[in-house]
Write a structure and sequence with these properties.
By secondary structure, the chain is of the alpha+beta class. It has 4 helices and 7 strands. The strands form 3 sheets. A 3-stranded antiparallel sheet has the order 3-7-4. The protein has a two-stranded antiparallel ribbon with strand order 1-2.
């Protein structure tokens, strides 16, 4: 980011740092600037504030004074991946059971498509992300798996 600013092109946006703690020390795994990953899906599930005004303020370089409100509930995402992912995986597998998703549950489509008959099918490695919230991690997990 400092390099971009030094070249006269300052970055204005959102940066997600994927960090894992190993042996008590943080390790940077990845950096993303998009909203499609499961890590972002779980965060967006907890966000209670409108996102657009904050993103607009970021674009203008005016984030000072912006605040976000977050749910106190626990949240998690269960990723449904195609068999074989991250290697070779099969596509075209029918997806069923998404009707009537339960309270506190959101389904994010990642690798889905419709086939020639209009049925929902798997079309990628990460197929769906099922985000769920609850007062505890255990309850969020139960909701995610029960849908």
């Amino acid at each position: 980011l400092e390099g971009m600013a030094a070249e006269g092109c300052p970055y204005r946006g959102v940066v997600f740092a994927g960090i894992m703690v190993c042996d008590g020390a943080p390790k940077l795994l990845e950096v993303n600037v998009r909203f499609g990953d499961p890590e972002c899906q779980v965060l967006m599930s907890r966000l209670q504030s409108p996102l657009a005004p904050v993103l607009q303020a970021a674009c203008r370089g005016e984030l000072q004074g912006q605040t976000l409100q977050w749910s106190e509930d626990a949240a998690l995402v269960v990723v449904l991946a195609a068999k074989g992912y991250p290697g070779s995986y099969r596509t075209g597998t029918p997806i069923r059971g998404l009707e009537g998703v339960g309270e506190g549950v959101k389904v994010f489509h990642a690798g889905t498509a419709t086939d020639e008959e209009g049925r929902l099918v798997a079309a990628g490695g990460r197929v769906l992300g099922v985000a769920a919230m609850g007062p505890t991690v255990a309850e969020a997990q139960r909701r995610a798996y029960e849908g």
